[in-house]
Amino acid sequence: MSGYKMAFKKAFPYTIPVLTGYLFIGIAFGVMYAEKGYSFLWAMLMSLLVYAGSGQYLAVNFFVPGISLIQVIFMTLMVNVRHIFYGISLLERFHNMGKKRWYMIFGLTDETYSLLCTTNVPEGVEEEKFLFAISIMNQSYWVIGSAIGGLAGTLIPFNSEGIDFAMTALFVVIFVEQWMDRKNCIPEMIGVAASFICLQIFGMDSFVLPSMILIILVLFIARTRLERQVDGTCQ
């Protein structure tokens, strides 16, 4: 148990940016959910059992008449298809985590993936416990934010128009942070270029999956060359 205590203690500072972000976008989700007439407890339960970030924002619109099950499945797949590629890149690390790997797969959000890929495990801490601590703390921030937002939306009526932009803003912050932190920014430039090309070809509603496939293909083909790049800053 002391191993987990140390893991959580060491992991917490790395999760502070996610804490600040998840509290605010969790609150935004809770407010939007409450506006549909649902209790804050349902918002908490959804964040606990679904935990899909932008997928939950999208799901708020599923509770209106006229949305079919096929539409729900397709729209959810389009929004969260990137998680398939996240999981593929972490198969080896999760394979050695025993039963905890099932939660790690479930808790693999954009922000958690970013931390798992860029954070070095501190000395004296077991890797699997450190990664588990990051994942579970990140989800707790999201659940708490959803509860606060659900309560606020129920008790304090206000206009929430535009509040869903909080998720977009968080993605921008993550990208900028990655750009500033990495030594080689070619993968980021490939991602931006591929997304822009697919956006022009497939349109706003269908470009996510083609973008992911194109990015993976380019990175796979150029992998050897990218690994040989001399370290340098992206600034």
Automatic annotation (TrEMBL):
**Assigned GO CC terms:** plasma membrane
- Top-level taxonomic group: Bacteria
Q: Which GO terms describe its biological process?
A: L-valine transmembrane transport
Q: Does the keyword Transmembrane helix apply?
A: yes
Entry's localization field: Cell membrane
What keywords sit in the KW lines?
Answer: Cell membrane, Membrane, Transmembrane, Transmembrane helix, Transport
Q: What is its main location?
A: membrane
Membrane topology according to the record: Multi-pass membrane protein
Q: Which residue ranges run through the membrane?
A: 12-33, 40-63, 69-91, 139-156, 192-222
One Pfam match, given by its short name, reads AzlC
Spell out the InterPro entries in the cross-references.
Answer: Brnchd-chn_aa_trnsp_permease
Statement: the UniProt record of this protein carries the keyword Transmembrane: yes
Which family is annotated? Belongs to the AzlC family.
> What is the protein named?
Branched-chain amino acid ABC transporter permease
What species does this protein belong to? Clostridium scindens (strain JCM 10418 / VPI 12708)
